[in-house]
Each structure stands twice: as C-alpha cells, then as structure tokens.
C-alpha cells in the first residue's frame, strides 16, 4: 500500500458545499462529526454522525455537507495484491450500512477508536517526519480495512430478494467496479453464469434499461467528473472511462450533456472554479 493523498477538514457554516471528484485510487472517507451525503456511483449514502466509506478507484463521488459543522478525514492510496482490501460486494454492503450501525455495539468501538486515532495523526502530520507519518497512517488504514470486513459480517443478512433483484444488484456492482475495462455481454454472462439474452431481459425488467445503457451512463458520468476536476485531455478521459473510440465518446457525451466534451468543460469551468479532490 502506498499513500497518495490525505487530509483532515473542519467545515463550519457551509451547508450544501461539495467536495470530491474521481481518481484512480482507493479512498477511505471518515465522517467524525456532523451530517453529510456521499453521492457515489449513482447512489446517495447518508452519514448522520460517525461513518466510514470505502471508495473504489475511478468511481465518481461527491461529499455534500448537510449540517452547520462537519469534521472528516480522507486518505487516498494505491493498493497491492497483498493489501487487505475487502471484496467489492463487501464494500457495497459496508457503505450501505453506514446510516444504520450502532457504533456502541461490538465490534464497532474498535473501529471508532481507530477513526479518532487517524484524525489525530493527520492533525499532527506537520510535526512528524514524513516517512514515520506515512508508515503510521498506512498501518492504521490497513487495520481499518481488516476491521471493515468483520464489521460488515457482524450485521444480520438483508431480507431475501427475488432472483431478478439479486441479478440486477450483482450486475450493477460488477459494472460499477470494472466500467473502465473492455466489457462485452459475454463478459457479464460469464461473471453471473446467466444466459446472455435472459440476463438482458431480467436486468431490464428490474432497472428499466439494458446493462450497456447503464454502463454507458457510468462511463459518461465518470468522464464528466474527469473533465471538470482534472487536466486530462479529452482523449485521455475517453480512454480512462473505457471508450474504445474518441469519436463515439464525443458523440455519446454530446447526446447526454448537450455539448461536445471540450465545449462542456470550457463552459462549466467558466461558471464555477474547478475543484481538486478535496
């Protein structure tokens, strides 16, 4: 594991403010105090008080402040195969639990103690040699990733769903985690072990759209975040979001957002300053 960026923030009187974007790194985002919404991959997660979210690489995300005062920290990092990153389905389950956890019940006090320790460490960053700070922070992040798996397993299983709902949820999670990669219908069928035509029909019954219509939405939303929050060229954005042709990307983007990528970026940046990751 290698640290890319981190920060501790105390925001007062800025209800409605947003922070976030999209980047090719894993991220832990911890709310220590206050209320906020995390908009991540098309879903809004509520944080009322303490919360810890895991954000996967290349997934658009925005933190929206809902209370007068908000304290939080974040850490972006590269992962290696040996790092204890939870499975994708565990991450989605964990993020969805944040508004319903009793943080006083075991095993969660161990997590909240670690949340506070990371926050205090980040506030002391300038007083420590960088290598020692980084080693200490990465050690705490690894601990949190391990505890997340235990915390998610401690919850009671959700009520059973129909096969159609379960399949749609499985396909949604899969597409959200691999959308920058080349994907065919057979890729999805192999992953779910469903017949391709049956898969498409069942998915559309549940969501109102085909898997590839949803995949295209994911890619275009990610592209919009890259255009607004990075200095990547249109060609680079197209490739990073999984489009095989810049011409197809430009045409699809214009159909979705009303203008070509370069024009859309210029117009949006003229209206509001571009945000960094934080």
Which terms summarize this structure?
single chain; 278 residues; alpha+beta; Jelly Rolls; Arc Repressor Mutant, subunit A; four-stranded antiparallel β-sheet; 10 helices; 49% helix; disordered C terminus; DNA-binding; transcription regulation; HTH_AraC-typ_CS; HTH_AraC
Could you explain how this protein is built, in words?
The chain has two domains: 2-154, Jelly Rolls (Sandwich), CATH 2.60.120.10; 163-271, Orthogonal Bundle (Arc Repressor Mutant, subunit A), CATH 1.10.10.60. The chain has helices at residues 88-97, 108-123, 130-154, 163-178, 185-192, 196-207, 211-229, 234-240, 246-257, 261-271, and strands at 2-12, 18-21, 26-33, 35-40, 43-48, 51-55, 61-65, 69-78. With 278 residues, it is α+β, with helices and mostly antiparallel strands. A hairpin with a 2-residue loop joins strand 4 and strand 5 (43-48). It is built from ten helices and eight strands. It holds the Pfam family HTH_18. GO terms for molecular function: DNA-binding transcription factor activity; sequence-specific DNA binding.
Annotate the secondary structure layout.
Elements: E1 2-12, E2 18-21, E3 26-33, E4 35-40, E5 43-48, E6 51-55, E7 61-65, E8 69-78, H1 88-97, H2 108-123, H3 130-154, H4 163-178, H5 185-192, H6 196-207, H7 211-229, H8 234-240, H9 246-257, H10 261-271
Antiparallel strand pairs: 1-8, 2-7, 3-6, 3-8, 4-5, 4-7
Keywords: DNA-binding, Transcription, Transcription regulation
GO molecular function, one term: DNA-binding transcription factor activity
Protein name: Helix-turn-helix domain-containing protein
